[in-house]
């Protein structure tokens, strides 16, 4: 088998960071299968336009024939599954796409991979890996003093998004247990960094602040998320791929819990220093409390002890260094954001935030 990997969803936020790092580090060729939903963006991969080590394929993980053809043609040594519908708020508005891609799509992908893997020779069969990229949201919500999620925390998903990811995790688990497919699953906390779609909290706040628009904080803003710089997540995935024990689950997190309001205030302080408003006011004056997300999970926190002790991975960035890089990236790439903030994105922002009592236009 050659040194090719099949990445799904590699035009999205985390997938494109993963593909860029993989190719730029000379780790081999990536076949990148992406449906290019509203969240997929080939601008993220423009630097690989002329690379012989990046093969982009526009398609759906649920298209089993296409996946079978790609596997047969490229003979990858691993499949890394990032493809998903990923936004909780959108899953509340319209869960169906989440069921289709995250559950049915993952099922068809697994079926195609099972057939491919089953036909490999013994050595290739032993070294092949299917790595499924999942989320800490499958574990549900923590109380203020509860211990962080470990790999044995029972699943208790609360949104259509997390329920669909939980279902896909179970399917992956069953394909290992029943068919022996060499699977690995990672459950990671909230990522942030370059190429993050501006419907999510951190890029939305940066974008709205620079545009002088309200900075919407759901409910009381005291919900807690555990933030990890996206390149650290990608490094963790590479580490699990190379050294993870087949059939195992690895939690990935930044040991970095913050309330939403603290995140928003920190971003305002950074922007005040880096790009002061013309009227001399603080960006914090744009903070606007809006109606809460239905079923909003209060707290996520990952215990990343297993991946640290068994595989020696820990984050390279602190939150301070990671958020500094992130804000600088958004300031230097406002064109990237402006190219996205059109069409489907504008409709989403208008409908979603007017329902929360705030006009963003
Ligand atoms: P994203 O929404 O930015 O990107 C998803 C990508 O998948 C897009 O390029 C989209 O076009 C593609 N896609 C969607 N449906 C597809 C289909 N049916 N077939 C092929 N491609 C399809 O998401 P992200 O934030 O990069 O997340 C990537 C993965 O990581 C997801 O599985 C998500 O659940 C998981 N995850 C995300 C976070 C986070 O903080 N963003 C944290 C932990 C885990
Ligand atoms: P988000 O980036 O959507 O990630 P997730 O829901 O997967 O954790 O949201 C992060 C947190 O920020 C979450 O608690 C919801 C909150 N939030 C706001 O307060 N305002 C916003 O406009 C958005 C998009 C999110």
TrEMBL record:
Top-level taxon of the source organism: Bacteria
E.C. number(s) listed in UniProt: 4.2.1.46
Record's keyword annotation contains NAD: yes
PROSITE patterns on file: ADH_SHORT
Single GO term (MF): dTDP-glucose 4,6-dehydratase activity
Enzyme class: lyase
A GO biological process held by the record: nucleotide-sugar metabolic process
Keywords, ordered alphabetically: Lyase, NAD
Domain NAD(P)-binding: 6-326
Cofactors demanded by this protein: NAD(+)
Name of the protein in its database record: dTDP-glucose 4,6-dehydratase
Origin organism lineage: Bacteria, Pseudomonadati, Pseudomonadota, Betaproteobacteria, Nitrosomonadales
Gene: rfbB
């Amino acid at each position: 088998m050659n040194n090719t990997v099949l990445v799904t969803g590699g035009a999205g936020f985390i997938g494109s960071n993963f593909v860029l790092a993989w190719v730029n580090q000379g780790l081999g060729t990536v076949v990148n299968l992406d449906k290019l939903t509203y969240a997929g963006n080939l601008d993220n991969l423009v630097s690989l336009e002329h690379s012989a080590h990046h093969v982009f394929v526009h398609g759906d993980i649920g298209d089993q024939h296409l996946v079978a053809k790609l596997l047969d043609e490229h003979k990858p040594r691993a499949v890394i599954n990032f493809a998903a519908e990923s936004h909780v708020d959108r899953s509340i508005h319209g869960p169906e796409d989440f069921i289709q891609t995250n559950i049915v799509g993952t099922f068809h992908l697994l079926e195609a991979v099972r057939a491919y893997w089953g036909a490999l020779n013994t050595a290739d069969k032993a070294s092949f890996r299917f790595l499924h990229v999942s989320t800490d949201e499958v574990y549900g919500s923590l109380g203020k003093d509860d211990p962080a999620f470990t790999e044995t925390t029972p699943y208790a998903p609360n949104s259509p998004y997390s329920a669909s990811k939980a279902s896909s995790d179970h399917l992956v688990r069953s394909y290992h247990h029943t068919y022996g497919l060499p699977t690995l699953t990672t459950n990671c906390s909230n990522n942030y960094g370059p190429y993050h779609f501006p419907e999510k909290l951190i890029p939305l706040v940066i974008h709205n602040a620079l545009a002088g628009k309200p900075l919407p904080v759901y409910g009381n803003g005291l919900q807690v998320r555990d933030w990890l710089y996206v390149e650290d997540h990608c490094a963790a995935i590479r580490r699990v791929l190379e050294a993870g024990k087949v059939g195992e689950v690895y939690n990935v997190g930044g040991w970095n819990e913050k309330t939403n309001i603290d995140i928003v205030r920190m971003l305002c302080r950074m922007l005040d220093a880096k790009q002061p408003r013309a009227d001399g006011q603080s960006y914090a004056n744009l903070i606007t409390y809006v109606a809460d997300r239905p079923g909003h999970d209060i707290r996520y926190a990952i215990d990343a002890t297993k991946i640290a002790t068994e595989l020696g991975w820990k984050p390279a960035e602190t939150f301070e260094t990671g958020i500094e890089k992130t804000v600088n990236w958004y300031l230097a790439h406002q064109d990237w954001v402006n190219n996205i903030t059109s069409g489907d994105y504008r409709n989403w922002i208008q409908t979603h935030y007017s329902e929360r009592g705030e006009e963003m236009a």
